[in-house]
Every structure is written in structure tokens, then in C-alpha cells.
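Quick one: C-alpha cells for this chain, please?
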Amino acid sequence: MKRKIHCVIMGGGRGTRLYPLTKLRCKPAVPLAGKYRLVDIPISNCINSGYNRIYLLSQFNTASLHRHVQDAYRFDRFGQGFVDILSAEQTEFGDDWYQGTADAVRRNLIHFGADDQDIFVILSGDQLYRMDFSMMVAEHIERNAEITVAAKPVATDEASGLGLLRVGDEASIIDFVEKPTDPDVINRLVPPKLKGDNQTPDRCLASMGIYVFNASAMFEALKGEAKDFGKEIIPSLVGKRNLKCHIYDDYWEDIGTVRSFFEANLQLCSERPQFNFYEQNHPIYNYPDILPMSKFKESKLIETNFASGCMIGDSDFRRCVLGVRSIIADGCRFENVVMMGADNYEVTDSTKIPVGVGANTKIENAIIDKNARIGKNVQLSPNGVKDGWSDHGENIYVRDGIIIVVKNAIVPDGISIGHL
């Protein structure tokens, strides 16, 4: 019987560290790079790897995610490919939410239709990277592994928020610790080959949250009550199962915080970004773009990316990402701004502030979420504002040193927050 590859993408929980970007959507649905969503990254990696049996497990604020996936990923019926969204559901075995990554997969085994000889690729829905999973799967099969964990070398000062592992002979995993905080434990996990010197720090191998399982091994591992792969399943199998490590030493960013999201977007403005959306052989897929060209009046653009359908007045931009249908009036100045644009163009309504940004508005170090309405003569900056602050109407927040205008927010004319 032909072996099938099942790709399972975790849709994530509440995404509290990304709040308020997750106020009205789940993490994988957060817009990225002007025209994509975070979930487009793992789905595109699956498709580019030749795998088209893709399951997306979701449960929190899922409407936006479902709408995007249904619009973007429609396979032809002859290829038998699909992106199937599986939301948490009430069954005779339980009626609560997914309790973790392993629990989510366990509850959906009935939907996968997998045989013992099949292979599962378990992925996160909120990471930015480009990876050929077929190479990892081929390595997994060649080594006769039961489970393979993808790992990336990271500096020890970045390691405390990640699962760390140590590798022995023939890439076997001999130690695994989830999110250690004890410096002695972290130093113990630094392999000789990743020891630093006066110019470079010590590095250790951090789990990327990407796993390849033989189906039979996964069925066995999920028989208990363990709720999470990283915290429980993988550590419990060290020394008991044939666990191997697949080393990936390229750009990978876990979009877990507002700061990491902000910086992942703005690095795209560089002449040679660390993650390149212009890679022709491994494209990132999205919904069909039927928007008109963007148009600019006499704008000054420095290291600025913009998507389709933007209408920009005589304004200045430095290191900005402007999403689809971004509308900005004359006399504005943006610096270090990620603007997500709008879902639709609107018929002009003189009774309220229009979608977009009004004239003579100055904004820096900011994220402007979708459909925001920002008036004229507004000044927005996180400088001098306490981290964690929000206005009374909860339209504007400051998180990780970044000012955030939330989705559908209304910011009246003349508002001034922070100092430029």
C-alpha cells in the first residue's frame, strides 16, 4: 500500500503575546508582509515540498482564518489535494477546547484516515521560514527513525523560551528540555561543535516545533493523556524511541510576540531581506490578487514595500510595509510602520472618518491593523508611553515598545500620543 504523507498545521490558541493583533483573529490569520497571512507560510512550504494533504487545526477566533483559507487554497479534483480545516468540536468523548498540540491531533485522528505505514508532518501556524519538508522526510526514512525533530542552532541568550535538545551519535536525540531557564541546564545542552569564541556566542539546538512521525509511533504516543508534543510527548520518548534530529540552519522566526512580528515585517524592507518573498522556485501562495495597481501622488519612499490597491497622497515613508488597499492622504509622515490596509474599499460617508489615514498625520514605530480609521493631524508614537498602556476606547495599545492601532479602530482628528 502506498505510504501517505499527512501535514497537520496547528492553528494556535489565544495568542496572548501577540495581543491586540489577536483580539479579533487567531495567530495564523494575522496579516503578514502586506498581502499574506501567517498561515500561508506553512501551507506554502507543504505545497512546495510536494505534499497536498494538509489539515489545519483551529479553535479560537477562526472566522477570518477559515475565510482566507477557503478563498486561497482550491485544489483541482484530479490532484486529490486539499487544505481541510478541523475546528474543535463536541463529541461523545469530550466537549472542551483542545488542551495542547498533542491533544488537538489526538482528537482528530478519526478524520485523518491514516494507516500505520503513513507519515505525519506536524507544523506550527505562526512561524516565518522556508523549508523543504520532503528532505526532512527522506532523511527520516533513511535513518529508520520513528520520530524526527527539526532543530535550529540558536544563541544561548535566546534559548530560554524554546525547547532545547542534545544530539548523540548518528543524530540521535539523547536529551530534551522544554523552555529551560536555569543557565546550568542551558550550558549543559551546548554541543562541542556549537561552542563559541571571543567573537561568537555559544549556541545550542532549539526545537522548531516541526516533527515528523511514523504514524504507528504517533498512534502509540497519543494513547495516554499527554496534552502537548513539546512539553510532554517528545521528552517522554527520549531513550525509549528512535528519535532523530534534523538540523536546519537558515532564517526562521517564531512570530510569538508583537516585537517579533514587527521586526519580521520590517526586515522585508531591506535590499537583501533574510526572508525573501521573491524566491521564484519556492513561492508563498495566497488568494488570487484582482486588485488594481497602487497609485502614488508625489510620495517619497525609502525602503518601503507596498501591496496592490493602495492610494497614497503626497507623503513621506521610511522603512514601511503598506498592505492591500492602504489609503493615506497628503502631508503624512511614516517611519517604521506596518500598515495592514483594508478588507474593502468603502463608499464615502461624510459622517465619519474614512478608512485609512487622514492628512498631516505623523506616525512612527507602529502597527496599523486592518480597516483602521485615523483622522487628520494625528500624532502617534510609543516614545514616552508606558508599555502596556491602552486608551479608554481600546483603539490604541502600546506593546513591546510599539504603538498598535487595532482592527476597525477609530482615531479622531488631532489626537496626539507619545512624542516624535
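The chain has a mean pLDDT of 91.
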